[in-house]
Write a structure and sequence with these properties.
By secondary structure, the protein is mostly beta strands. It contains 1 helix and 38 strands.
Length: 519
């Protein structure tokens, strides 16, 4: 397969000064964004996948690239194994006096913070701001007098209640930054009119404090904005964007950013099920010191999401681009599209001679595939696509299993297993985190040194499989399975190599992992 024939699966920039939504058909859940000079930065949730908390960069709010991660590893031992739905929830990014801050909630452990002077460089180790269970969606804010605050929401699954927002000052008491909860207060109760209000982002404009926060639930909710002349309230409320007559359900939490030319824009996500929480960009304007997001032809003060619009005016035109998806493993490091199913360990892989060598990590006989830490995964980049991977099987040893994986609420895989000197194709499926899994011998023996595996995703709804030993003639194999979202995450696709047995483990080398359009 030639690298020159590969192209990105989803391009939002239409090349004529306009863009289409979503700008990213990828599961960058719970986005927050800022502008620093001519650069836009966005962060997103990553739960228990590592590296953790992706940082995306753009020059025009439409064309984005992943440039880094805030944490190489999650700072708790429990994340050495997959903890589905736990880990790094909705982060917030801010820039203050030469330093970038990212606040990250761990719903079971507390609020953590990482800082960096260069977002492309190494971020400082995470610092615990408040060790507490159930606090989520933290956002820092510096007032005009220099006082630092944090606003946050609550996870009912951990603390027993939700639909409330809390604000407290932050201080450095000589032991590092700490949330001064005894000086904080609940600033808003949304139970009556804004149920499930969460994801707060605090700003100040024209003498008003604004809290942008979604309410009504991820799949069916709306964008709410709270406004007050005093930081502790009381706050007025207004719904500033609904789904209306558009196909954009939600629309859920995000970030207000401005451009160098004085325009205002809003980034938010939409939950589309199996593909996860994809990213939209909406125009925003101010009317009587209230934001109106999206299109509002009736001048009601509540907008609807746009599907196609002119690009933001950033004073220049930038190249069309998108995050990486295909990989020919040229090194020297793994591409930034890749994440592990848990904290990575030394010795899982090597990049050499234009290939990715995945070592078959020993696993207990009773562990389910979705609970293996060393699954190498990446997010879906579009609603439909085909992935083709070429695997060199010559270093497999008896007991080794390798192949392609689809992981969401259900786990599906096409695997090559070596036993008794023979390589057989298997399909292993299960319901993620539910303790159920089945493995079926597909009746195919592979005698070649290498093979191609092919995964086809149709309508963001189903996964089917093919294989080839010559790279030209592909045969359908296994059963088509329904794709489903995981715990607050979309489906990921990737590679695996593991060993189950008493003998010595071997390895498999992936020569490429390439996305193409579904025909």
């Amino acid at each position: 397969m030639k690298e020159s024939s590969v192209r990105k699966m989803w391009i939002a920039d239409q090349g004529d000064g306009t863009y289409r939504n979503p700008i990213l058909y990828t599961d960058y859940s719970d986005p927050d964004a800022i502008r620093v000079g001519d650069d836009f930065f966005m962060v997103a949730s990553s739960f228990s996948n590592t590296p953790s908390v992706p940082i995306l960069h753009s020059k025009d709010l439409v064309n984005w690239k992943v440039i880094n991660y805030v944490m190489d590893r999650l700072p708790f031992e429990r994340y050495d194994t997959p903890q589905h739905g736990c880990g790094a929830w909705a982060p917030a990014i801010r820039y203050h006096e030469g330093l970038y801050y990212v606040f990250i909630p761990f719903p079971d452990e507390g609020i953590m913070m990482c800082t960096a002077k260069d977002p492309w460089g190494k971020w400082d180790a995470p610092q615990m701001i408040k060790k507490i269970r159930g606090w989520i969606d933290p956002c820092p804010f510096w007032d005009d007098d220099g006082t630092m605050y944090m606003v946050n929401g609550f996870a009912k699954s951990r603390i027993g209640f939700k639909s409330a927002l809390y604000l407290c000052p932050l201080r450095d008491e000589g032991k590092g930054l700490e949330a001064m909860v005894d000086e904080g207060a609940f600033v808003y109760d949304g139970h009556a009119t804004q149920p499930t209000i969460e994801g707060p982002k605090l700003y100040k404009r024209n003498g008003y404090y604004y809290i942008f926060a979604p309410a009504g639930g991820v799949k069916t909710g709306w964008q709410t904005v709270l406004r007050s002349k005093k930081i502790l309230g009381p706050y007025e409320e207004r719904i500033v964007m609904r789904q209306g007559n558009t196909p954009v359900n939600g629309p859920h939490q995000g970030a207000w950013v401005d451009t160098q030319t004085g325009e205002d824009w809003f980034l938010h996500f939409q939950d589309v099920g199996s593909a996860g929480r994809i990213i939209h960009l909406q125009p925003m304007r101010w009317v009587d010191d209230w934001p109106v997001i999206g299109s509002d032809p009736q001048e009601s003060g509540c907008g609807e999401p746009v599907l196609h619009y002119r690009k933001p005016d950033v004073g220049a035109v930038w190249p069309v681009d998108a995050p990486e998806d295909s990989d020919f493993f040229k090194g020297p490091e793994l591409g930034l599209q890749w994440q592990w199913n848990a904290n990575a360990q030394a010795g899982w892989y090597q990049l050499k001679d234009g290939g990715l060598r995945l070592n078959a990590v020993p696993q207990p006989e009773n562990v389910h595939l979705y609970d293996m830490s060393n699954l190498l995964l990446q997010k879906w980049p579009a609603p439909e696509f085909v992935i083709t991977a070429r695997l060199d099987l010559r270093d497999l040893r008896d007991g080794d299993v390798c192949g392609m994986v689809s992981l969401g609420g259900s786990c599906d895989s096409l695997l090559a297993a070596k036993q008794g000197g023979e390589v057989r194709l298997l399909q292993r499926t299960g319901e993620t985190g539910k303790g159920t899994e089945g493995c079926r011998d597909l009746g195919v023996t592979i005698t070649a040194d290498a093979m191609q595996l092919r995964m086809t995703v149709t309508g963001a709804a189903s996964v089917s499989w093919e294989y080839s030993v010559d790279g030209e003639n592909f045969s359908a194999v296994g059963q088509e399975t329904a794709a489903s979202a995981g715990v607050w995450v979309g489906v990921k696709a990737g590679l695996c190599a593991f060993h189950q047995g008493s003998g010595e483990a071997g390895s498999v080398t992936a020569e490429y992992f390439v996305f193409s359009e579904k025909k």
